Task: structure prediction
Amino acid sequence: MNITIIANGSFPTLPSVLSCLGEADRVVCCDGALEKYLQWVRRQNPRPVQQVAVVGDGDSLSPALLNESLHEGLPISHQQISEQESNDLSKAVRYAAEHTHHLNEPIHVSILGATGKREDHTLGNIALLAYYSEHYPLMQFAMVGDYGTFYPVNGLRRFPSYPGQQVSLFALRSDIPISVKGLKYPIENRCLEWLWQGTLNESLGDSFEVKGERVIVFQKR
Result:
């Protein structure tokens, strides 16, 4: 099962990035991000057949936009969630988890448009990857953009790579040691006190490993 969640940040432009949207079985838009999805759909020939839901508190979703999607012939499911303890991206992830928990198969979740525009939103959304990974262990998350992809690590994870690929690690817990193999600058069972300390590393071969908890890995495209 492939799910693509579209947040209302900067929408990617590279065809290689947008391929995950074309391959999605289900699409979940965060409120106003429906407009970005509609613009993308109009450029597709033939148009994809996907289940599409719009989730959020409704503050950036106009009735006109929903009507526009109906005129386009898109079967849109709209769920307004008014609580303000979580942002629209987290509501969309929770919605996706609730509607796929019965499936006995891997669930791959690609998140688009979560970065760009407001820097505070960008930083918060990237950090949320670690939260999603802990709370929805049956889902495999990737936050995809034109410049690269963020992945959460909770345990031991191997990443396909290539020699010279730029890699950054962000440890969200300074009291839990992390280790890496296959990167130019070694980290062995070390606690990273500051967020910047695992950045600007480089892959040595066709893969590398990261072991830790609440770690975010960025691979440059």
About this structure: The chain has a mean pLDDT of 93.
